Amino acid sequence: MILTEYKEYMRTFFEQYYEKLSRDGIEIKRPLSEKEREMWADDADPDVEWKKWKLVPANIEEGEIAEFEQEIGVKLPLSMKAFLTTYHHFFDDPIGVNPFSKHFKGMKNAWNPVLIKCGYLPFAWNEEHYNIRCMKLANMPAEEECGIYQIDHEVLFDFDEETVTPEEMDENMEFLSENLLTYLDEILNDKDKDSMHRALMNAVVAVLNDDFDIEDYDMLEMKLEEDYDSILEALMPVVEEYDLSEEDLEDILEEVEDWI
Question: How far apart are CA 173 and CA 186, in angstroms?
Answer without folding.
Answer: 19
